[in-house]
Amino acid sequence: RKAIVSFHTRHKLLILSHSEKHYRSMGKLVAETRALPLEVLFKEYEKQMMGALSLKSTIRKNANVLQHMMGYFKEHLTSDEKQEILEVISEYRSEFIPLIVPVTLMKHYTRKYKQAYLNEQVYLNPHPAELKLRNHV
Q1: 42 burial level (CB within 10 Å; 0-12, 13-18, 19+)
Q2: pLDDT tier at 137 (50, 70, 90 boundaries)?
Q3: What span, in angstroms and rounded, lies between the C-alpha atoms of 17 and 37?
Q4: According to a count of CB atoms within 10 Å of the terminal CB, is the N or C end of the chain lower?
């Protein structure tokens, strides 16, 4: 049960980037891990995870995740830093820059402000950088 909670915690923003509906549903499922037999829990979690990942991540969904991440820095960001993030998200939303740009900025602030929760998020490093999967506009 601890393993599924840990896995889910690290993958929450990745799930959100594909489906807010699945994000909410899976959060409820994980919150109630003791209510289900372990085998049923794993099968249901796997079913929902595959359902979420089968849905396309879009610019709108990614922009939502980026804004969600920004909230983790609200106690730390200067007004200039906040403005910078908002501008970069807006440029991404308008398709002027690829997703890798705001993600790199978020990684920078995650390290700068030692944001442990975001540092563990698979969303920031979902695949090997060499594949350049986030470099398209």
Answers
A1: middle
A2: low
A3: 29
A4: C
